[in-house]
Amino acid sequence: MTPTPLTAQAIDFLRPLLWEEDDVLDGLTADLIERGPQIQIAPDEGALLHLLLTIIRAERVLELGTLFGYSAIWMARALPPNGHLDTVELSDVHADAAEGWFRRAGLADRITIVRGAALEVLPKLRGPYDALFIDAVKEEYPAYLEHGLRLVRPGGLILADNGLWGGRIGDPAQTDVGVEGIRRYLRDVASHPRLHSTVVAAGDGLAVSLVK
Length: 212
Ligand code: MG
Known about the structure:
By secondary structure, this protein is of the alpha/beta class.
């Protein structure tokens, strides 16, 4: 059968039940509408990240691409009190905004923002992490994956946003470096002997890979 499209009516029913955003996430979203690009993950994807981290009992998580901290808040809330999320952000404007939202969420002591370009920061980081969430420069996804395989423990997860890239992933007419980067990432996670992978149609598509 063909996949069931996630209609607006279905979202209206499911969102308050399972994907509810509290005042902090609502405020952060309003802040993005006012002064940031609205490219944060969708609530269903946030809820899925939270659930996946809970399932593997994640304590130490790495994120590439903080933006205003929307996904980081969903993920940090899945961690135990001694857990920690490191999140890498290139833009100082975004990192400053995220710092404010982490304080308002009461998560300032559980999240560290590492300022810089992901490919410059990654070689300096040491594992093991329980999970990596990739949501930064699309053409760099395959290079992030190489670092992920070094940094994430066996039994951990390597996750990546924009696995569907607005549907462009399957359109042969689309050949820009971003879409090609995501395509290569998906081919790499599909064929890598240490990964067991799929893409879930949550938000803009969450690529999920279990590290063997
Ligand atoms: Mg994204």
